[in-house]
Write a structure and sequence with these properties.
The complex is a heterodimer of chains A (about 270) and B (about 350). In chain A, about 35% of the residues lie in helices and about 25% in strands. Chain A is α/β, with parallel strands linked by helices. Chain A has one domain: Rossmann fold, CATH 3.40.50. The N and C termini of chain A lie far apart (about 45 Å). Chain B is mainly alpha-helical. Chain B has a single domain, classed as ABC transporter involved in vitamin B12 uptake, BtuC (Orthogonal Bundle). In chain B, the strands form 2 sheets. Chain B has a two-stranded antiparallel ribbon. A two-stranded antiparallel ribbon of chain B has the order 2-3. Chain B starts with a helix and ends with a helix. The chains are: A alpha/beta (about 270), B mainly alpha (about 350).
């Protein structure tokens, strides 16, 4: 599809993404300071931390929405020019993000949502609506299994449940063959049965040989699926544990301790 | 049963259909009330001569509202670009320069709006209110408050090209139709249009799916400025006259045309076809009412009624649940009143 993706598919690289000493400030607020963070080739990295710890800021940097104030970023071991880095470039490098509750236009039909930013266009730059709808239709039937729900490519996002919305956003990432899928709290506000589906998908990403950054409030979920856990606290990485190095109880205790250790007014 | 209801909903989903029905009903009513006028072709030729500036403005504003923004400054473009055109024709004798500079001045106004809104971050309602005063005021200064008569304008090639007549048929109707088709394609079939819809739907979503929100907004306001300038050129040439308040009446009429047409006040959903039909509705009501013998005083009240019914109609069709709730409410009220009466 895009050149960087093809060029790198066969080369050997260790990390799909690596951040070195990344700073991010908003006015006087230091959201991230000196963050080192990396994701291996076929690794699920769970990112945990309290509200305001900097999780969302970190993944917005990875996905090209925000430009860090300082630091370096490598994608597939190649240094990125941060002045050029954008959502579009992240897409070209096959990094896809499912932002919490923010990935879909609610009033737009599903076919537009699947292709927005990467529209299929004809010779004169007009959107090939027929083709987009056709692919959307296939995707809905096969990848997501929306058969018989009365949902089709023309349905608007408003007509979908929370789980179905995550399904669409995740299906979009799969369709564009992301090597790294960033999931920002995908299970928030979902019914229990739908949570299982999302967790199964995260495991599916691993099985298909891709990598994933998984942000989650629910420690049990993230402890279950992550290969490695990274704990953020007030903009800093304060802990890293490979799978099996920390039990769920220890992790929970640690998070509570961090929360209680925070100065008043910042909780 | 299921297929019948789905085909019915498919018919209802054809763009602009409900409002087209309202327009046809209005025409039929006028035909009944004033057959002398509305069964002849002349009145329709007259509409095709007077509606195009309104239509061009409404269709362009549809894109702005689709993106969740508003432009209150286009009346000042109608004044400014009209003055530029009139000055170039009357004082410099160059219609071509007049057309070019008129469109360029519209683009400039739009660009300034875009920068103020997308880069500086001023809400569009405030920014364009301010620029409306600024450019409108400057036009008054430039023209010294005088009107320019272009009495012999119909001898110009530009006049014949843009607002001439083919038999009784006004050429500007063709230009307006071309603009409507082009902007329909832009909104529904170009990446730019899709980006505007997503920006209007939710600007944060637009950002995370990789849309350059600021750039697209600036392009949109420039497009609006150019279209307002084109409307001004059509208007000034058709009237063979420029006066510095010639944009004044358009602000509310254009907005009414857009919203009657079914474009969402909240952004993210817009109908170019609806705005075209809405323009004709607004453009016809006045002449129609006068022809039927009703006093001119009634015009605004009737527009209000049509406006309200159109907005409620769109709501019922788009959100059937709210529509059913409305029907239930009316039914309950009716039952209650019957019970109290008996």
């Amino acid at each position: 599809m895009t050149q960087p993706a093809q060029a790198t598919a066969t080369q050997s690289w260790r990390h799909i993404v690596r951040l070195h000493k990344v700073d991010m400030t908003f006015g006087k607020v230091q959201a991230l300071s000196q963050v080192d963070f990396e994701v291996g080739r076929n690794e699920i990295v769970g990112l945990v931390g309290d509200n305001g710890a900097g999780k969302s800021t970190l993944i917005k940097i990875v996905s090209g929405v925000l430009r860090p104030t300082a630091g370096k970023i490598w994608v597939r071991d190649a240094l990125i020019d941060l002045d050029d880095y954008s959502v579009r470039m992240a897409h070209e490098l096959r990094i896809e993000t499912v932002h919490q509750g923010l990935s879909l236009g609610e009033k737009q039909p599903l076919w537009r949502n699947l292709f927005v930013g990467r529209q299929i266009t004809g010779r004169f730059g007009f959107i090939d609506v027929k083709k987009e709808k056709q692919v959307a239709h296939q995707l809905l039937r096969q990848a997501i299994g929306f058969r018989g729900h009365g949902i089709n490519a023309d349905s608007t996002v408003r007509d979908l449940s929370g789980g179905e919305r995550q399904g669409i956003a995740i299906a979009r990432a799969m369709y564009f063959q992301a090597d790294l899928i960033v999931l920002d709290e995908p299970t928030t506000a979902l019914a229990v049965s739908e949570v299982r589906k999302v967790l199964a998908f995260v495991e599916g990403v691993k099985a298909a040989g891709h990598a994933c950054i998984y942000i989650e409030h629910n420690l049990a979920h993230v402890h279950e699926v992550a290969d490695r856990l990274v704990i953020l606290d007030r903009g800093k990485v304060v802990g890293e544990f490979a799978k099996g190095e920390i039990t769920l109880t220890e992790l929970t205790k640690r998070m509570i301790a961090l929360h209680e250790g925070q100065p008043r007014g910042h909780g | 049963m299921a297929t019948a209801s789905s085909s019915a909903s498919r018919v209802l989903r054809i763009e602009g259909l409900p409002i087209l029905a309202v327009l046809l009903a209005l025409v039929v009513a006028f035909m009944v009330a004033a057959p002398d006028v509305f069964l002849g072709y002349r009145i329709y030729m007259s509409f095709l001569a007077t509606v195009p500036p309104l239509l061009v403005l409404a269709v362009a504003l549809t894109l702005v509202i689709a993106a969740g923004e508003i432009d209150l400054s286009f009346p000042s473009v109608i004044a400014l670009s009209g003055w530029v055109l009139a000055y170039c024709i009357r004082d410099l004798g160059s219609p071509l320069l007049g057309l070019a500079l008129a469109l360029a001045s519209g683009a400039l106004v739009g660009y300034v709006n875009g920068i103020l809104i997308a880069r500086v971050g001023i809400p569009s309602i405030i920014a364009t209110l301010a620029t409306q005063f600024l450019w409108g005021g400057l036009t008054t200064v430039f023209s010294q408050g005088l009107s320019y008569s272009l009495g012999n304008a119909d001898e110009l090639w530009l006049w014949r090209l843009l607002v001439g007549r083919i038999g009784p048929f006004p050429v500007q109707a063709l230009w307006a139709a071309a603009v409507a088709v082009a902007l329909w394609l832009v909104l529904n079939r170009r990446r730019f249009g899709e980006h505007l819809l997503f920006i209007g739907d939710n600007a944060k979503v637009a950002e995370v799916v990789g849309i350059n929100v600021a750039r697209e907004k600036i392009r949109m306001f420039v497009l609006m400025g150019i279209m307002a300038a084109l409307a001004s050129v059509l208007l000034t040439l058709e009237n063979k006259n420029f006066f510095n308040t010639q944009g004044g009446g358009y602000l509310l009429e254009v907005m009414a045309a857009v919203f009657i047409g079914g474009t969402s006040v909240f952004g993210g959903k817009a109908s170019v076809v609806g705005s075209v039909v809405g323009s004709f509705l607004i453009g016809m009501v006045e002449a129609g009412l006068v022809a039927t013998g009703l006093q001119g005083f009634w015009v605004r009240a009737v527009v209000g009624i049509v406006f309200l019914s159109a907005v409620v109609g769109h709501l019922v069709i788009e959100e059937p649940e709210r529509g059913r709730a409305l029907v239930r409410l009316i039914a309950t009220k009716a039952r209650l009143s019957r019970r109290t009466n008996s």
